[in-house]
Amino acid sequence: MFRMSTDIAIDLGTANIIVYVKGRGIVLREPSVVAIDKNSGKVIAVGSEARRMLGRTPGNIVATRPLRDGVIADYDVTEKMLRYFIDKANGKRLLFKPRVMVCIPANVTGVEERAVKQAAIQAGASQAFVIEEPLAAALGAGLDISQPGGTMVVDIGGGTTDVAVLSLGGIVISRSLRVGGDKFDEAIVKYVRRELSLAIGERTAEEIKMEIANAYPDGSAPARMQVRGRDLVDGLPKEITITSDHIHEAISDNLALIVSTVKEVLEQTPPELAADIVDKGIVLTGGGALLHGLDTLLARETGLNVFVAEDPLSCVAIGTGRALTMLNVLNAQHKRRLISKAVRQKLTTADR
């Protein structure tokens, strides 16, 4: 029996894809990984099954992440991945194609935005819309951004960190930093290789990050974890003990970049909105918000209260789903932003 179509919201993350179906809530949450046969171009596996193949595939199969730093790195593979998730979430027995809304980093280029929309259309959407991640995160966290008051959101995903001040349903000022969970994993791999002479993979680095990483050591005894890899001295398998102090040192540069970006946005926030943020504090969303001690680090560095959203991993997907019911409002705001941007560019050119 065929069913009518419905609206779908997709948090198209570098590390994970979360799919929200209108009226049903979140229906899928899987890694953004695709395994492909290089000889035939056929998709072997998508999501969790493909992630288990990372670093373990034979020569003719490659497990890859088609999204890098929050944007599409491989268009064809992204399209196949989107089609798989849309079909899995909504089923193939539909009378009409679904409308799809996809979240994007705040400061993507027009070319990158069009690529996301086109990929969604090619994957089976009747219409494709996009929404900036900080706006979706705020909606998903249950924040009231419709009023004339400043709200600050820091969304730390797998590929990007978006820092934004919101007011009257739109973004007043934002910065998008291509640092996120993946960069933390890469830093851990490099540190363990350089300082401990052990070769580990991305999956192991992610497990270390989730288990013992600490953004703000509190002086207590460091957490410890047994890690297996390949010894770079003799090339044999080896197990060593890694502490949270090691991992803090490994990710400290990336943490400093996030802190400096938050401070930069605060420095450029209009005074009235800055006063509102003093009252409301900063809200953390995204998987990176779960990094132990990150809220304490940002609170110490900014002097503001910092709160972690109730369900930081799902905020962007939930907010994107809620935005599906606000398309008219969001489209009007988008047009105003385009006009404002064009005016600023014209003035800048005239000044030259």
Question: How does the major sheet shape up?
Answer: 5 strands, mixed
Report the CATH superfamily of the largest domain. Answer: ATPase, nucleotide binding domain
Please identify the top-level CATH class of the largest domain.
Alpha Beta
Order of helices and strands: EEEEEHEEEHEHEHEEEHEHEEHHEHEHH
**Helix proportion of residues, in percent?**
40-55%
**Overall pLDDT level:** 87
CATH topology of the largest domain: Nucleotidyltransferase, domain 5
Question: What does this molecule look like?
Answer:
With 352 residues, this protein is an alpha+beta fold. The protein folds into three domains: 8-135 and 319-343, ATPase, nucleotide binding domain (Nucleotidyltransferase, domain 5, 2-Layer Sandwich); 144-179 and 257-312, 2-Layer Sandwich (Nucleotidyltransferase, domain 5); 181-250, ATPase, substrate binding domain, subdomain 4 (Actin, Chain A, domain 4), CATH 3.90.640.10. It contains eleven helices and 18 strands. It has helices spanning 48-51, 75-90, 110-122, 133-140, 181-196, 202-212, 244-268, 271-280, 294-302, 315-323, 327-351; strands at residues 8-12, 16-21, 25-31, 34-37, 43-46, 61-64, 67-68, 71-72, 99-104, 127-132, 151-156, 161-167, 170-177, 198-199, 224-231, 237-243, 282-285, 306-308. The strands form five sheets. It has a five-stranded mixed β-sheet with strand order 3-2-1-9-10, with helices on both faces. A hairpin with a 3-residue loop joins strand 2 and strand 3 (25-31). The longest helix has 25 residues, at 244-268. The chain is flat.
